[in-house]
Amino acid sequence: MPMLAPKVHPLTRLAEADDPMEVVASSAPGDPDYMLECMVDELSWGGMTEDEVLALFHDPGYPVLNQLLGYYGGDAVRDRVRDLFARREGFRVTAVVDETPDPDSDDGPELIQLSVRSSAGRHA
User: Fold this and answer.
1) pLDDT higher at 25 or 82
2) Collapsing DSSP states into helix, strand and coil, what is residue 38?
3) Which residues, 6+ apart, have CB-to-CB distance to 49 below 8 Å?
4) CA 94 to CA 52: how far, in whole Å?
5) Quick check: 37 pLDDT over 90?
6) Cα(12)–Cα(9) distance, rounded to whole angstroms?
7) How far apart are CA 117 and CA 120, in angstroms?
8) Which positions ≥6 away from 117 have C-beta within 8 Å?
9) 20 to 30 A Cα–Cα from 94, which one of 21, 25, 45, 79?
10) Rounded CA separation 41/8 (Å)
11) Backbone torsions φ then ψ of 112, nearest 5 degrees
12) Terminal-residue alpha carbon distance, the chain
């Protein structure tokens, strides 16, 4: 007679060292240049600076970026990341909060003021 294991929901059981559900990256076909562009765009949209993104190419926690670094080489990755940041069209939001507003004052605006600045030439 076969040995039966109790049915346990994955969220209720403890993870084990030899757990077969371990996340493992695998390669996928595609255009490496487009992948690099997508990764840099996503990280920069998340607020990372050019230097922070470049550092991730050497971080073992980012295997896709490590592979792109190996594929292109350090100089080409640095040049491509700089180019992507330089031509990136987007905006950054900053805020100044008045921690002590006077609700009885009529001299302040009721809405916040927004302004847009061009980032052209920022990475020259």
Assistant:
1) 82
2) helix
3) none
4) 19
5) yes
6) 5
7) 9
8) none
9) 79
10) 41
11) -80, 150
12) 74
Query: Which residue type, as a one-letter code, is found at position 10?
Result: P
* CA dist 98 → 81, 104, 105 (Å): 37, 15, 13
Highest mean pLDDT out of 17-21, 26-30, 53-57: 53-57
pLDDT for res 25: 65
Residue with tokens 């292109």: 72
Query: Can you give 73-116 as a three-state secondary structure string?
Result: CHHHHHHHHHHHHHHCCCCCCCCCCCCCCCCCCCCCCCCCCCCC
* AA identity, residue 103: P
Of 27-31, 36-40, 119-123, highest mean pLDDT? 36-40
Alpha-carbon distance 53 to 64, whole Å?
Answer: 13
Q: Which sequence spans correspond to the domains of the chain?
A: 30-96
Q: How far apart are CA 28 and CA 117, in angstroms?
A: 39
